[in-house]
Amino acid sequence: MTSLNYRPFLVDIPEADLDDLRRRIADTRWPDELPDVGWDRGVPLEYLKELADYWRTTYDWRAAEAELNRYPQFIADIDGAEVHFLHVRSPEPDAMPLLITHGWPGSVAEFVDIIGPLTDPRAHGGDPADAFHLVIPSIPGYGFSRPHRQTGWDVPRIARAWAELMRGLGYDRYVAQGGDAGSVISLELARIAQESVAGVHVNMLMTFPSGDPAELAELSGSDMGRLGSLQRFDAELSGYMKIMATRPQTLAYGLNDSPVGQLAWIVEKFREWTDAAKVPEDAVNRDRMLTVVTIYWLTATAGSSAQFYYEGAEGVRQAASGVTPPPVTVPVGVAVFPSDIFLPIRSLADRDLPTIVHWTECSAGGHFAALEQPELLVGDIQTFTRALR
């Protein structure tokens, strides 16, 4: 077994940092706004003012901190980075290890509602045979995996770090799960550690056409609609990604100095990437959403998390141009949540991932599945993994 140097960790934010956050919110210099534009040009001023005031006066970080500290947390030294992770073992002795990876703008906090049902299904009305030992790391440069001091933390390097983490914890066979960047990292982990990864479950999958007219001609009307959504993302919704993939350092100055700027940058995604009807809270609990934002603020990781996009820009360009990565040889399960920004096309997914053995079109939810539809996500993970145990 690989020796892993890790130590216990407890979230313990100084009160002075919370006082500073509240002061900065109160001192916000607000911009003006054109009348009657709604969300078309970004987060509306009236909505953000109300949410920021709630963040300053009502939101309880200490409650969120205590909720995170219910679970064993650690910091591991891996490849020059300090990697934060939750390690929650199931009471069931035959539980299967499951590695769950978040994305942007996510954090380990988005998984608090699924930890109990996954680790202890017996206590949640489920089958104890579906239990998991959970490992939930923070991507280097995100949250409590403090800003790294090296370039090169791209998807393959993170996947190698995850393989080392799981080996060091004594898990020689496990399942990888993720959405957003966590999906890409989990699939890459399966490529580099196929002897250990029993399967991969993702709740986001990007499928790009190859450019072959015959391939497009075979798509159904609903498939073409999904392709149209991908084109809309590229034309209208991907500005955040293009900035972070090209000038993350410039962006960091504003987000690291203004909590309301950080709030708007993230909250916009909770509205656009979910099945929210009018405001993000239609889909995601307000306090859960603010916990995610607060972690970015308190750890000052707006800039370092954006570096992930810079490091991965070439891989995204290759995928969009039809370059197929090396094959994934282990079983793959896909849960499609209907309001996600990326809705995969099954025929294109099978082209790129011929080992897909499980595909679910979920009834509700969007990009932040663990926050929006935790029961649907838990159920789909359990269903997929039964054949792997």
What's the short story on this structure?
The chain has 389 residues and is an alpha/beta fold. The chain has 16 helices and 9 strands.
Description:
This protein is of the alpha/beta class and 389 residues long. It is built from 16 helices and 9 strands. Strands 1-2-3-5-4-6-7-8-9 form a 9-stranded mixed beta sheet, with helices on both faces. α14 links the parallel β8 and β9. α10 crosses α11 and α10 runs antiparallel to α13. The protein is globular. The mean pLDDT is 95.
Write out key terms for the chains shown.
nine-stranded mixed β-sheet, alpha/beta, 389 residues
Approximate shape: globular
Report the uncertain regions: none
Radius of gyration, Cα only, in angstroms? 20 Å
Terminal Cα span: 22 Å
- Chain-averaged pLDDT: 95
- Give the helix/strand class: alpha/beta
Element layout with pairings:
Blueprint (H helix, E strand, L loop, with lengths): L5 E4 L5 H12 L18 H13 L3 H8 L4 E6 L2 E8 L7 E6 L10 H8 L12 E6 L17 H14 L5 E5 L2 H12 L4 E6 L10 H5 L3 H17 L1 H8 L1 H10 L1 H14 L13 H14 L2 H19 L11 E5 L9 H7 L3 E6 L7 H4 L1 H12 L4
Parallel strand pairs: 4-5, 4-6, 6-7, 7-8, 8-9
Antiparallel strand pairs: 1-2, 2-3, 3-5
Helix pairs in contact: 1-2, 4-16, 5-6, 9-13, 10-11, 10-13, 11-12
